[in-house]
Amino acid sequence: MSSPLAVVLGVGGLYVGQSIIGGLTFIALPSVLRERNLPLDQIGLLYLAVLPWAFKFLWAPAVERYRLPPTGHSRSRSIVLVGGLISAVGLILSGLIGPTGFMPLLAVLLLIAFATSTSDIACDGHAVETLSERHHGWGNAAQVGGAYLGSAIGSGLFLVLVAQCGWGVACFAMAALLIVLGLLFVISPAPPSPGRDHRPSLRQALRRKDMHLGLALAAVNVIAQKWGVSMQGPFLIDSGLDLTSLGIVNGIGGMAVGFVCALIGGALVRMWSARVVLALALVLQALALSGLAYAAWKGDVGQPLLLVLALASSSGIMALGFVALYAQFMAVSDPRQAGIDFTLLQCMDALVSMAGGMGSGWIAQHSGYGLYFGLAALLALAAAPIAAMLSHRVAARSDIRKGQREALAGVPSGQ
C-alpha cells in the first residue's frame, strides 16, 4: 500500500504546478494585458484557455483505460511526466512570444491547458483510488491548498518577476518550477496493481443519480464563487494599483490566506458537514462581492479596503468552499474509474467558469464594475440554499452507494 503522506505530497505538488498555470493565465495575465491598455472584452477571451478543462471528459475514458491496464501497475506517473514536459515547453514558448502577441500566446496557453488537464485526469484518479476514505480529508487539503499555493505563485510571484525582470524571465522561471513540482508526483510510490475487471466508461458515470447531483452542485458553486472573481485583477489595476504591489498581495497574501482557509475548511467539514460549509462560504462570498460593488460605485474607497475585500473573495472564501466541494467530488467518484468521474465534475466547473469569465469581461466593459460585482453578489446569495440542498442529497446518495458496495463485498455495515 502506498504511503498516504507520499500520495498527498505528490497530489499536492501536481496541484501546485497546475495552479501556477491557472494563476498565470487567469489572474496575472489579465493584469499585465490591462496595464498594456488591452480592452476588457479582449482580455475576457483568455477564458478560452478553459476549453480543454471543460471538455476533457471527452478523452478521459481513453486516458483512464490506458492508465488502468487489466494487469500491472497504473500508468499515472508516465501520463503526468509527459504532460508536465509539454507544459514546461509551452511556458518557454510563451516567454519567447511575449504578452503582446495575443493570439499566438492564446494558442500556446490552449496547448498547455490540454497537457495539464490530461495530467489532472491521472492525478485525481490516483488520489481517489489510493487514499482510503479516512484520508480523503488530507487529499482534499492537498488539492485545495496546493491549488491556492500554485495560484499565488502564478498570480503573485509571476507578476513580481514580470515587473522586475521582464516577461521572458518570469515565464522561464515558472517552467523550471513546474518541472520540479511534477517530480514530487512522478517519484511517489505506485499504487497496488490488482487485476481489474471493470472497464471504465463515460456511460457508467452518467447513468448514476449521484453523479447528476454532483454535476449540478459543481455548476451552482462555480456560478456563485468564481464569476465574481475573474475581473478583480483588472478592477484593482484600474483603481490605481501597480503590478508589483498586486503581485505581492496575490502572492504572499493569497498563499497565506488560501492555505490557512483550506485547513480551516477541512476542519469545519469534519465538524459541521460539507453542506453547512458550502452554504457559509457562499453567504460570505455574497458579502465580499457586495463590498466590491459598493467600492466600485462609490469610487473613492481606499486601496487597503479594496485589497482586503479582493483577497477575502478570491483566496479565503473560495478556499473554504472548495474544500467542502472537493470532499463531495471524492464521495461521488467510483474508485474503479475515479479519473473519469472526478473529471466530469471538474469539467462542469471549468465549462461554467469559462462562460462566466468571458461574460464578465463584456459586462464589466459595457456596464461597469459596480453592476458586475452587484450581480455576482446576488448570484452567490441565491446559490447558498440551492447548494446546501444539493450537497445534502449528494451525501445521502453516496451513503446508499457505499452501503451497496459493502453488502456486495460482504462487509458489515458501518465498518
From TrEMBL:
Coiled coil: none annotated. It is found in: Membrane. It is a multi-pass membrane protein. It holds the Pfam family MFS_1. PROSITE patterns: MFS. Keywords: Membrane, Transmembrane, Transmembrane helix, Transport. It comes from the Bacteria. The chain crosses the membrane at residues 7-30, 42-59, 79-97, 144-161, 167-190, 248-269, 276-297, 303-327, 339-363, 369-391. Residues 5-395 form the Major facilitator superfamily (MFS) profile domain. Belongs to the major facilitator superfamily. This is MFS transporter.
